[in-house]
Amino acid sequence: MAADEELDSDISEGERDDADILTLGLFIDYDLGFATLSSNTGYKDHDYYYKEDYDGTPLSINNFQFQQSGEYFQQELRLTSNDDGPLSWYTGVSYYDEDLDADFSAIGSEDLMCQYYLNYYAEYYGYEFYTGCSDYYYDFYPTADGMLTESGKIKGKYTGWAAYANVGFDITERISLELGARYTEDEKEFSTWVPEPDSYLGPYFTYGFATDGYITDKRSGMTPRSAVW
User: Fold this and answer.
1) Nearest 5°: CA angle at 210, between 205 and 212?
2) Measured CA distances, 106 to 32, 65, 66, 109 (Å)
3) Residues 114, 97: Cα–Cα separation, whole Å
4) CATH number at residue 48
5) Positive or negative, the Cα torsion across 57, 58, 59, 62?
6) Number of domain units in the chain
7) Which of 62, 64, 77, 211 lies deepest, with the highest CB count within 10 Å?
8) Whole-angstrom distance, CA of residue 97 vs CA of residue 185
9) Contact 95/160 with Cβ under 8 angstroms?
10) Looking at the DSSP assignment, which residues form a beta bridge with residue 152?
């Protein structure tokens, strides 16, 4: 039998777990006589917002929050032969496009950060224990709420298309010969930005670094493919 259990945790920003998701799909088959034209269209839109007390204690060590929005679209057209004879074939093209935008934040008490890291070395070297940042940094000035907020921002842009074809021939009832080919091309652009925190401590706990605006990496590639079986 499960018993009621109380947990003492801290989440100064409040707990949230919200998700708005829209998914649409459209499938169409059209008989052209000699072949069937199939269309597969998809669209998805999402917005996520999540907050939690990551450390699960009554101390403000790491209150994590995450927000993301994105859109995805894909389209495929496929033509499939209707012939009942030994020869069969299909060919098609597909395309997709995706956009993502996300924000991450880790929020914790400045004094607790200093206590944890500074007292680790204080115990090792025999120093006096510190109760807060001002005990060590003589010119320390806290943020308005006494919190170190480290955030990161991500943007993603992904697109790609492909074309394919396949031909099959039934030599006998048990033996078939097929020849297929596929060409794929993708382009992925990813950007990240780690702003300098407002806190005197800087990027102290989560990232350990900051960037001057978005850093972007863009990659593209193509993948030809053929097969015989």
Assistant:
1) 165
2) 57, 7, 9, 10
3) 45
4) 2.40.170.20
5) positive
6) 1
7) 62
8) 12
9) yes
10) 104
